Amino acid sequence: MTEPKKKKKKKPIQKTRTPMPEQEASVRVGNFDEVPLGYTPEQAKQEAARCSQCKKPLCVTGCPVEVDIPGFLKLICEGDFAGAARRIKSTNALPAVCGRVCPQEDQCESKCILAKKFESVAIGRLERFAADYERNNNVVELAEKAPPNGKRVAIVGSGPAGLTAAGDLVLLGYDVTVFEVFHKPGGVLMYGIPEFRLPKEIVEAEVDYLIRLGVKLELNVVVGKSVTIDELLGERGYSAVFVGVGAGLPVFLGLPGEDLGGVYSASEYLTRSNLMKAYLFPAYDTPIVRGRGVTVIGGGNVAMDSARTALRLGAKTVTIVYRRSREELPARAEEIDHAEHEGVVFRMLTAPLAFEGNEQGMVQKMKCLSMELGEPDDSGRRRPVPIEGSEFDIDTDLVILAVGSGANPLLTKSTPGLTLNKWGYIKTLEHGRTDKAGVWAGGDIVTGSATVIDAMGAGKEAAADIHRSLMG
Ligand code: FAD
Ligand code: SF4
Fold first, then answer.
1. 136: Cα separation from own chain's centroid
2. Is 113 inside a domain boundary?
3. Which residues form ligand 1's pocket by a CB distance below 6 Å?
4. Structural domain for 447, as ranges
5. Are residues 397 and 284 in the same domain?
6. What does pTM read for this prediction?
7. Domain boundary among 89, 109, 136
């Protein structure tokens, strides 16, 4: 008699994620180095082994650029880290960036089957691990390119939307030039998101990869002023233009005293610090006000980045003032936690009324009003309602306004034929096509301020459509 086959015992699933080491809060507030330190190869294999290799992987449906998530996780389990990086790169040109700043908790990770009972696989951390392994070990292989097809495409703006469109088009055989107004490419990745969340050398390496693929860069060019889109499509000989100029126009509150010294828009504050390296002044030319009592108005990622930058620039106290409650804070949970651990104070249900300055015209005080939550508004969130007679003051010598951003009209105003919506963003038809022949658009200039991966998804979709249109 043959013995009944013994069922192989399944290894129990590790319910929680493998923790990622990070710099201690008390140490990191004194430097601009990256906070999370990344997985070791052993930690990465351990975490990737949590993936169930689902037949119908829902996580992929949560990724706007459809990264083959189970595929790259399997390669990590097998120890083929460079292969994992190549697998991600076949659909995502900026994996080291996405692994750091994508809101994975709302995207791929929120769809992971494990999330129903346990913690989801840490997809973002593993994406970062694979991309870092490839870069740090110099095993980056250039993707295969189609032969040149003789057509030229201009990309306006070198943020994630423009870079993704450029990367996809160059692989399809186009002669691609990216025009950028700043002296460094990368868009918000370079001048918005601080070094301690996204080191600039990583953005530089990802841009460098595109240059090695053949993408050309023209920096310090204001499209709409130095050259128009009609000139690019006309005498400059481009067959198509992709517009990815972002939504970098700062929004102000229109409150009394907003023009005092020491009141910055987050956009100016972060650009001075990130792009102009103001934190190294006077070694670098650009100065920055280093407040001791800093107030940041707003509750999104931009507010968290500003607050944490102010701490690293030597502030004694940094207070985030937000008019709704903590539950409504729009920033990523991880960013809120990091800010809190570093000592940022959260003053919820508070709205600014006015700013007052000293004789030198520098801000000294912010007048505020307490709020309570009323009925839900159009967004479904409970509306903040002022509490009568609740005025109070906050002493402050630096205020950073992180209350949103808008569309910069410079390019859109100088381009006849583009249709804009009521907020000044470019209206597109399907696949990023605009009303103007030969012009596509995508990223924040179409959607308003969104996410890196959404901008990349838009760049990808437009690139595919430009190819269909130019090649029939
Ligand atoms: P951008 O990144 O804004 O790039 C546009 C580029 O076009 C810029 O380089 C600009 O200089 C250039 N340009 C503009 N006008 C012209 C012109 N006329 N001629 C030539 N060039 C021009 N998203 C996340 O997913 N995760 C995060 O953690 C996150 N944190 C953020 C933190 C901050 C401080 C900010 C500001 C944004 C953050 N975002 C985050 C949002 C995200 O960065 C943006 O949604 C994304 O960068 C949009 O990409 P884009 O390519 O459309 O535009
Ligand atoms: Fe998830 Fe972003 Fe990676 Fe896509 S690119 S798999 S959304 S982390």
1. 23
2. yes
3. 101-103, 156-162, 179-182, 187-188, 192-193, 221-224, 244-246, 248, 270, 301-302, 305, 408, 410-411, 443-444, 449-453, 455
4. 152-248+405-471
5. yes
6. 0.91
7. 136
Helix (H, G, I), strand (E, B) or coil at 338: helix
What ligand 1 atom has the least distance to the C-alpha of 266?
Answer: 34
* 302 and 165 in a common domain: no
472 Cα to the center of ligand 2, angstroms: 31
The CB of 453 under 6 Å from ligand 2? The reply is yes
Going from the Cα of 267 to the center of ligand 1, the distance in angstroms, rounded, reads 11
C-alpha pair distances (Å), 194 with each of 272, 303, 346, 401, 403: 11, 12, 20, 16, 18
20 is a domain residue: no
Q: How far is the CA of 313 from the centre of ligand 2 (A)?
A: 32
CA separation for the pair 110, 59 (Å, rounded): 7
Q: What is the pLDDT of residues 157-215, one digit of tens each?
A: 999 999 999 999 999 999 999 999 999 999 999 999 999 999 999 999 999 999 999 99
* In-domain check, residue 310: yes
Q: Considering the chain, what is the average pLDDT of its residues? A: 92
For a pocket test of ligand 2, which of 17, 453, 456 has the largest count of ligand atoms closer than 8 A to its C-beta?
A: 453
**Residue 21 is encoded by which pair of tokens?**
């080491």
- What residue's CA is closest to ligand 2, atom 8? 124
SS (H, E, C) 249-267: EECCCCCCCCCCECEEEHH
